[in-house]
Amino acid sequence: MTFPPLLPALSVTPLAAIEVERRHLLAASALVLAWPRALRRCADVPSWEQFLVEAPKRVGELAQGKSAAEQDAYLYTLASLAAQIESVPGGKLSAFARLDPKVLFGMLHRGTPFFVVEWRLEPNAVLPAHCHPGASVCTLALEGAAEIRHYEVEPGAPAYDSKSEDAFTLRETRRQRLRPGALSTLSATRDNVHGFRAGAEGARGIDITTMHGGDGSFSFVDFDPETPLDPKLGSYEALWIGQEPR
Ligand SMILES: [Fe+2]
Prior knowledge:
It is built from three helices and ten strands. It is 23% helix and 35% strand. The chain is globular. The termini are far apart. It has helices spanning 14-43, 48-59, 68-82, and strands at residues 94-95, 103-110, 114-121, 126-130, 135-153, 168-178, 183-186, 193-211, 220-222, 235-242. By secondary structure, it is an alpha+beta fold. A hairpin with a 7-residue loop joins β1 and β2. The chain folds into two domains: 14-43; 90-242, Jelly Rolls (Sandwich). Strands 1, 2, 3, 4, 5, 6, 7, 8, 9 and 10 form a ten-stranded antiparallel beta sheet that branches. The longest helix is centred in the N-terminal third of the chain and has 30 residues, at 14-43. It binds fe (ii) ion. Fe (ii) ion is lined by residues 130, 132, 137, 194.
């Protein structure tokens, strides 16, 4: 993309040139002044409490978007705010299912347009891959280290809640090391399945979840993440297994 120059070509009379230049300088000044305002707005959300107050104001309208592009605009704006959070206070956590090493969850905030779940993975804990129908998630890592892997369901798969025992194909779309400050997002239409594997020191983070028509139901996916059907494609044979991980 080519941007127009701030100053016009010198093919005008001197007086006109001065006037045009003055207008451009005013426009440029307005632009420069706008940046610090934007930066000050960013600086307004350094604490967790301020994030919970300011972020919904900033992203509330974007959260209403229905298209994939609108959801991404929402998620990346939310992520840009989450990236500035100084620290996140820990809440009360409970062990999920019978996973061993333990995976612990706690509701940290319920609000509109999002709610926030804190998670802690014990050393080497695994939270198996699961889907988020009609929802988006912005994951922010806070402590330790973990690997997060995202997947998408290939067309033709049974519905996640169909109780079908028919296998389907899952395709890996992203693999990322989560370290403190790292962000990873999924939307209702992309990267919607994710799973976590903690490193030797365990990991802690939050998931900022927004419903885009979903009702909160989901399913874990049973597959072997180390045995792809096709390593080049990153495809896996998978089954929906409901809300109890294996
Ligand atoms: Fe999740």
